[in-house]
Design a protein that fits this description.
3-stranded mixed sheet, alpha/beta, 8-stranded mixed sheet
Length: 498
């Protein structure tokens, strides 16, 4: 191929395939070569099956030849290893599922298969999506392509690092407390967590059911819109899936329909701009807000008074749901089973002791504790009441503004091992993202600059319920006048020139 597809956006790849500039087979082959070259050092992928991916690519080329193919037909997409994928190892980053080959497809996988997209492989992640750094994976940590000694964020760290290193043009992720947005910020890519219920959770291995939401990760806002067009949709098999008319999330991005940002009210919560934010992050976010002012936006101060409670509330509710969801992994029907045991109870205990890592065990224990007799009212019920207050804060803030902006994370990517001995410090890296999940709102992170160490900084954009199309336009307009989203780490540049 004359041009390096690794540097092309998802939109450019769709257009190139439609124009016959290259085939899906050639494209997929190129990305598999890049994965083979970079994955040993970055550890982004748990499973790659070149034969299977290339077979999908050939089928997509045949579909394209009929002249009636959807935009993403033939485009290779990496899938987070939390989505059950028929015939593929689906591990959720855990020893517990290290031998589990899924017998069915998650709804999200079905949707991508339906449009003829190619599955490029399954990406590494924090075990059962529990973590903020991708260090809890049974398959080892993912390395940030901007600095291999640093974390890519979590739990969707494999997906984020793969997109940043140009090993995949786009990837799926899931976000329970910031697991799409925080790794997107740490690796300098775009990530969107949709409104709760917009993307079906069927076949997405559950962590905390009232918070989990799948979403797209890519290099531009436009690419996120193309992905969300495929991922969103009602699914009767998920009781929390919302029955809504189909939307075209790219509708506000075309020059004809793109809404100018003049008059858009941006809310800056005073709680987001405190002493806890590093100088590098603060400076980049403030520069981005200045850029939005130039685009005609109006900036207003808002308040989210209960935001400080979001971390303690989350770490009561999420482990409670996790302890319930993870009870299904008992070594009986599938997954890891201990080799030697005396009786059924012993088999349960040994299988779970061997199959789960330290962070997962910690959360199961916390969850079981807060749900236990005598503590349920003191912790769980109180946390649910505070969750309602946090959601109400957003309702009040949106009376004064159209979107809320601030840092995605308080710092840039930290070093591997730096916070693994201090769970509370690790949990606080999600301080700005968790409240969005508790309220069920859509949130996204886009690149907005670098700190003094050359590490990417993410700008978080939070919208009201079902305002994804508007948020994507707000991000897209920023990307028309800046190039932060186009910057690539050295790993990606080396792979292309080699």
């Amino acid at each position: 191929m004359q041009h390096h597809p690794q540097q092309a956006t998802l939109r450019q790849l769709c257009d190139g395939l439609a124009a016959g500039k290259f085939s899906s087979y050639e494209l997929t082959h190129e990305f598999i070569n890049i994965i083979n070259e970079l994955n040993p050092a970055l550890n982004c992928f748990i499973s790659v099956d070149a034969e299977r991916s290339l077979a999908q690519a050939r089928a997509a080329d045949a579909k394209r030849a009929t002249g009636n193919a959807p935009p993403l037909c033939g485009v290779p997409i990496a899938q987070k290893d939390i989505f059950c994928t028929q015939g593929w190892l689906t591990t959720c980053g855990s020893r517990m599922l290290s031998n589990f080959v899924s017998p069915y497809d998650a709804h999200v996988i079905e949707r991508f298969n339906g449009v003829g997209a190619v599955n490029l492989g399954k990406t590494n992640m924090d075990e059962f999506a529990m973590g903020s750094s991708n260090e809890t994976s049974f398959f080892g940590p993912v390395h940030n392509p901007w600095d291999r000694g640093r974390v890519p964020g979590g739990s969707s760290g494999g997906s984020a690092a793969a997109v940043a290193a140009r090993m995949a043009p786009a990837a799926t992720g899931t976000d329970t407390g910031g697991s799409i947005r925080q790794p997107a910020a740490f690796t300098g890519i775009c990530g969107l967590k949709p409104t709760y219920g917009v993307v079906s959770r069927y076949g997405m291995i559950a962590f905390a059911s009232s918070l989990d939401q799948g979403g797209p990760m890519a290099r531009t806002a436009e690419d996120l819109a193309l992905m969300l067009n495929v991922m969103a949709g009602f699914d009767a098999r998920d009781s929390t899936s919302l029955q809504r008319d189909a939307e075209d999330y790219t509708r506000e991005l075309t020059p004809t329909f793109a809404k100018p940002l003049a008059g858009l009210r941006i809310g800056l919560p005073r709680e987001f701009f405190t002493a806890g934010v590093s100088a590098g992050v603060s400076k980049a976010v403030e520069s981005a807000i200045t850029e939005y002012r130039k685009l005609g936006c109006e900036v207003v101060e808002v308040s989210l008074p209960n935001m400080a409670l979001s971390v303690p509330v989350y770490y009561v509710l999420a482990p409670a749901e996790a302890s319930s969801n993870l009870s299904r992994f008992d070594g009986v029907r599938y997954g890891h089973r201990a080799r030697e045991y005396a009786n059924l109870t012993d088999m349960y205990e040994k299988s779970r002791a061997e199959g789960f890592g330290a962070e997962v065990k910690r959360r199961i224990l916390i969850g079981a504790y807060v749900l236990s007799h005598g503590y349920y009212d003191a912790y769980y019920i109180r946390a649910q009441k505070l969750r309602r207050l946090i959601a109400q804060d957003f309702t009040e803030a949106f009376k004064l503004c159209d979107v809320i902006m601030g840092p995605t994370t308080p710092t840039t990517a930290f070093k591997i091992g730096e916070k693994s001995g201090d769970p509370v410090q690790m949990y606080l890296s999600d301080i700005y993202t968790i409240a969005v999940n508790l309220a069920g709102l859509p949130g996204m992170s886009i690149p907005c600059g670098f700190d003094n160490g050359g590490l990417p900084v993410g700008l978080q954009i939070i919208g009201n319920y079902f305002s994804e199309a508007r948020m994507l336009n707000v991000a897209h307009q920023f990307q028309q006048v800046t190039d932060w989203h186009a910057r690539a780490p050295k790993d990606a540049q080396k792979a292309v020139t080699s």
